[in-house]
């Protein structure tokens, strides 16, 4: 059953950039998995978002992307999920990308984190 809190989209990286691409085969894993977040990502939704994010991550693509561009309301619980996803990608040797909304960027700033398309980090790490 697909969660109503987040949408999972799987498509080749080239298609995300606006280019067409061909599949390597009917059973080939997609080049990229994009996990799209809902407008509200607070502690109330955190358990379901975390569960859905883990399921998306285990889809097995070469790259994992979190699309937080629609997030309007958030707190530190979402930042924890994003950081855990980044660490899981690094440990698995997978690429990670993050699309931010102003609300997520502001939450990161308030938490002392630097936010960019490469993910979240301590502000001093990317100075």
TrEMBL record:
Gene3D superfamilies: STAS domain (3.30.750.24). It comes from the Bacteria. Residues 37-113 form the MlaB-like STAS domain. Residues 1-29 are annotated as: Disordered. Residues 14-29 have a biased composition (Low complexity). This is STAS domain-containing protein. It comes from Paracoccus tibetensis.
